[in-house]
Amino acid sequence: MTERKPMIAVLTGAGISTDSGIPDFRGPQGVWTRDPAAEKMFTYEHYMADPAVRRASWRARADNAAWNAQPNPAHLALVELERAGFPVRIITQNIDGLHQKAGSTPRKVLELHGTMFTVRCMGCGERGTMRDALDRVEAGDPDPACLSCGGILKAGTIMFGENLDSETLNQAGSIAKACRLFWAVGTSLMVQPAASLCAIAMTEGAKTTIVNAQPTPYDVVADEVVRDPIGEALPRMAAALIAAHPS
């Protein structure tokens, strides 16, 4: 009888997308490392209160590398695991949509911090596409307001100072409890509550592997820590797992 393939939960952070040309935040060449003031654009209080921060945010959105980014071997390795019959669930802190673009089943990808491709009004709650909002910016409106109520438009992402969607977070917790393997990939494991998913998985007995260039608070309790480049490490890990559990 063929051994049942273990359920894998993969928590991904900015580090998995750097090989696709999207800079991370806290790394040596990170967005905030190079420009600490840029953090204001990701902070709800500053964004809502300061029109200058919003104008800078709209300019940054238009220039975001994710618009043209392509999935890299790390994203594709997770797709291969799914195609090989493994129950894979991806919990991502990223907003770039590259897991879905690579071919991961959208319903199996939980976007903890939302997506950069939508906008929502902070007044009436109406939602729209980021592309439509950016078209207005390119037409000369530096801080486009909601067309329905005139409220402040914000990307469909979770900023610092905002709560994560409770349903999404509950789903993530359930996945962390149920998995047998937990991979934390390209994340500093410093941002809560996402980082706590690692502790949940460990408590439930999952074998935990951390793949990250920089140390994380969970390194000392993880089963394995991998410092190799993510684009090399994840394909290798996926291939080894597929070989160990043939169909």
TrEMBL record:
Its EC number(s): 2.3.1.286
Domain Deacetylase sirtuin-type: 1-244
Keywords: Metal-binding, NAD, Transferase, Zinc
Keyword Nucleus assigned: no
Binding site for Zn(2+): 121, 124, 146, 149
InterPro entries given in the database record: DHS-like_NAD/FAD-binding_dom, NAD-dep_sirtuin_deacylases, Sirtuin, Sirtuin_cat_small_dom_sf, Ssirtuin_cat_dom
Active site positions, chain numbering: 113 (proton acceptor)
Domain of life, source organism: Bacteria
UniProt-listed PROSITE patterns: SIRTUIN
GO molecular function, one term: metal ion binding
Pfam families: SIR2 (PF02146)
Name of the protein in its database record: protein acetyllysine N-acetyltransferase
